[in-house]
Amino acid sequence: MRRRHLDWGLAGRAVIVTGGAGAIGRAIAEGFAEAGARVAVVDRETAAAQAAAAALGGEGHEGFGADLAAIAALPDLVAAIEAQMGLCTVLCNVAGVIRRNADLLSVTEEEWDGQHAVNLKATFFLCQAFAARLIAAGRPGAIVNTTSQGWWSGGYAGSVVYNAAKGGVATMTRGLARAWAPHGIRVNALAPGLVETPMLVTPETTPEQVAALVAQIPLGRLGQPADHAGAAVFLASDLAAYVTGATLNVSGGFLMY
Ligand SMILES: NC(=O)c1ccc[n+]([C@@H]2O[C@H](COP(=O)([O-])OP(=O)(O)OC[C@H]3O[C@@H](n4cnc5c(N)ncnc54)[C@H](O)[C@@H]3O)[C@@H](O)[C@H]2O)c1
């Protein structure tokens, strides 16, 4: 029989998407649903997570409310998802927060801790809780983390603290990829660029400011949430069976190196 090269291999599999009620997370959850996966949408508010799961249509999607910064509860969260949906073999960490402060001399410990708790610490401990169950079950799986272009640039316009955490995510992704490769767990990251979501463009953002952002992007437009779905699904899928430790820029060419 002729070998098939283009099967995602995700049909029927249980996939966790954190931040799945947010802009990029919702688009990624839609991508997994289209690939036939059953999606566990995790977000801070239960109602929002459940509404996002219901909006995916089809069967088998569920919403789970959790504050990911409550680190000690993360193993119970993964166990609760597994009890409802079966063993999850894909984890996509999309939840994130930014608090811009361009006056670096005024950054507080609370600002630092708040961003690092969700963006970096929760990402690590959710990876840990997820991998623990796969390793115990002797099953392979895939993790996709979300970093940012600033993991490389260092950040701008007040995003230094945020990007210190996102740099940690990119570095940690490579370390986890090496550590868990013997267990068949691949770990990769997405690095979005300038994406038209409330995290970047607010009602106060002027057309001139948007134009200045677009001017930095070779493909000539801001990213859209949907631009990230294919990349996340690819990295999680069997099509990326030989890809681990990678950080994939999804940025219209904003960052090239
Ligand atoms: N928008 C951009 O330009 C951009 C650029 C680079 C990277 N990113 C990253 O992409 C990811 C998604 O960003 P987005 O633009 O869709 O933002 P968003 O605010 O629309 O989505 C983030 C989601 O994370 C959830 N979340 C935050 N803290 C949480 C917590 N403690 N517990 C549970 N859920 C929590 C929020 O409720 C929200 O639904 C983030 O990791 C972000 O850092 C975004």
From TrEMBL:
Keyword Amino-acid biosynthesis: no
The entry's keywords: Oxidoreductase
The keyword DNA-binding belongs to this UniProt entry's keyword annotation: no
EC number per UniProt: 1.1.1.125
Enzyme's top EC category: oxidoreductase
Source taxon at top rank: Bacteria
Biological processes, Gene Ontology terms: fatty acid elongation
GO MF annotation terms: 2-deoxy-D-gluconate 3-dehydrogenase activity
Record InterPro entries: NAD(P)-bd_dom_sf (IPR036291), SDR_fam (IPR002347)
Protein family according to the UniProt entry: Belongs to the short-chain dehydrogenases/reductases (SDR) family.
PANTHER family associated with the record: BLL7886 PROTEIN, SHORT-CHAIN DEHYDROGENASES/REDUCTASES FAMILY MEMBER
Listed name of the protein: Product
